[in-house]
TrEMBL record:
Protein name, UniProt field: Carboxymuconolactone decarboxylase family protein
Source organism, top-level taxon: Bacteria
Pfam family, one: CMD
Domain Carboxymuconolactone decarboxylase-like: 16-98
Length: 157
């Protein structure tokens, strides 16, 4: 079991300008009108690829709060084999994976699929969301931020 080198809350104090910049960048795609559930799936998938436990847990919990179907959360790691994802979600997930793993650049096929589902502006903002989560993943993985604990269910009255 690995131990945190520092924590997420420490990062806010150590580098508040970097924190604020990354937070703002990560919010732009939703402010531009991209679907928040789709963005959470993309952020979750990139976080899985990058091995950032903190970010995986953060985006699972956030996805649950905004109503992402639990089946999608369970299947996002194998989205290509799961028919539950829409063509737009598939294009976004393929785009996120391609931007997260760049050894060969972005193929014409993936670009064509993404640009067929997203306008030029949407694709720019989707890219900003992927860039942002990849940056967060680098901090979370480097410092081994401790994943959040799932909040306990509210006690029945």
């Amino acid at each position: 079991m690995s131990h945190a080198r520092s924590e997420y809350e420490d990062f806010k104090k150590i580098a508040p300008d970097v924190y604020d910049l990354l937070l703002a960048l990560g919010q732009l795609a939703a402010k531009a009108g991209l679907d928040k559930q789709l963005l959470e799936l993309v952020k979750l998938r990139a976080s899985q690829i990058n091995g950032c436990a903190f970010c995986v847990q953060h985006h699972v919990l956030l996805s649950e709060r905004i109503g992402v179907p639990v089946d999608k959360l369970h299947l996002v790691a194998v989205w290509r084999e799961a028919p539950i994802f829409s063509p737009r979600e598939r294009a976004a997930l393929a785009w996120a994976e391609a931007l997260t793993c760049l050894p060969d650049g972005i193929s014409e096929e993936i670009y064509a699929e993404a640009s067929g589902e997203f306008s030029e502006t949407e694709l720019a903002y989707l890219t900003s969301a992927v860039v942002s989560i990849n940056a967060w993943n680098r901090f979370g993985a480097a410092f081994r931020w401790t994943p959040a604990v799932r909040p306990a269910a509210a006690a029945a009255s």
